[in-house]
Design goal:
The protein is an alpha/beta fold and 219 residues long. The protein has helices spanning 15-27, 51-62, 91-101, 125-131, 144-150, 152-156, 174-182, 194-203, 215-218, and strands at residues 2-8, 32-37, 75-77, 106-112, 133-137, 161-164. The chain has nine helices and six strands. It has a six-stranded parallel sheet with strand order 3-2-1-4-5-6, with helices on both faces. Strand 2, helix 2 and strand 3 (75-77) form a beta-alpha-beta unit. The termini are far apart. This is Probable nicotinate-nucleotide adenylyltransferase.
Length: 219
């Protein structure tokens, strides 16, 4: 099998996440895309919803996802980072664990071109780049070929990078969604699966404290 590993905060999961994963799977003939939500204790991430809320939203978002050519679900989700010990688990460890789980399959870490310039600075970046393969999505303002050419580590392992130069223009910012909800605005339709939106409203996620009912009002 050819498997894509799609890591993100998914805070919340949006239709852009699903569209991106499906488009990459179609263009690179992936048999499976595994969504890997990052833990809320990561020092490099400012998350707004906790692990369990984001996990539930992700599960809801992919539950009616597309099928692969074999008729099996194309989308899966993994708690590999959510359940890891905080401060000791990084992308290299995630990819190594998947490699152990799928020793006979081809694995690809899915990332945006905006992450490419600093990839060598990631914890265990040298090992990650040399030992694993990547599918990199184009982002406006980032020349992927030039970034790789100017970086000795990336240039040395350039065959590990599969560059998608165009065709993934859809952009729905999770940050935008959080800010709209925080201000009490109604979200336009089609930003996220309806089940995810319903979950957010039911659990009153991303709302400003002033918009939440008081304890007295809840009685």
């Amino acid at each position: 099998m050819r498997i894509g590993i799609f890591g993100s905060a998914f805070d919340p999961f949006t239709n852009a996440h699903g569209f991106t994963a499906y488009s990459i799977a179609e263009r690179r003939r992936l048999d499976k895309v595994i969504f890997v939500p990052s833990a809320d204790l990561r020092s490099d991430k400012e998350l707004q919803a906790n692990n369990e809320h984001r996990w539930q939203m992700l599960q809801l978002g992919i539950q009616d996802g597309p099928l692969n050519q074999e008729g099996a679900s194309l989308f899966e989700a993994s708690r590999i980072e959510l359940d890891a010990t905080a401060g000791t688990h990084y992308t290299l460890h995630t990819m190594n664990q998947f490699k152990e789980q799928y020793p006979e399959d081809e694995l690809f870490f899915i990332m945006g071109a905006d992450l490419l310039p600093n990839l060598h600075e990631w914890r265990y970046g040298d090992e990650l780049v040399s030992q694993h393969r990547f599918i990199v999505m184009a982002r406006g303002g980032y020349d992927m070929l030039e970034i790789i050419a100017r970086n000795p580590l990336l240039r040395r392992h350039e065959m590990n990078f599969d560059l998608l130069h165009k065709g993934l223009a859809i952009e729905i910012s999770s940050t935008y969604i959080r800010e709209e909800l925080r201000m009490g605005a109604s979200l336009p339709r089609y930003l996220m699966p309806r089940s995810v939106e319903d979950y957010i409203l039911e659990h009153r996620l991303y709302q400003a404290t002033s918009l939440l009912p008081s304890v007295t009002e809840l009685k």
